[in-house]
């Protein structure tokens, strides 16, 4: 069995000692990554279209690998599950619901996505 070199996150999650505390940098970190910015520029699609494209989402999720990180966060948005529920959105520049949910009838009309 091979030894995992980047096991810091796994070790701390299992209450084992680590040489330093792993850091989780959250939300919109891509804006400061030149490779991410270039990928977005070259692709040209709207952000929500990138979330829906598995190939590009994987590529973006793996960009931090060059930094020697020991974990990865999937490139997605917290609003992505709204699309299969029937409540689409787009960014302009922030998230905008295409059909805002304002009544209980609209809440009941939302579909539960398959897991």
UniProtKB/TrEMBL annotation:
Gene Ontology, cellular component aspect: cytosol
Coiled coil: none
SUPFAM superfamilies in the record: UROD/MetE-like
Domain Uroporphyrinogen decarboxylase (URO-D): 22-31
Superkingdom of this protein's organism: Bacteria
GO annotation (BP), single: protoporphyrinogen IX biosynthetic process from glutamate
Gene3D superfamilies in alphabetical order: 3.20.20.210
An MF annotation (GO) of this entry: uroporphyrinogen decarboxylase activity
Protein name per the record: Uroporphyrinogen decarboxylase
Organism: SAR324 cluster bacterium
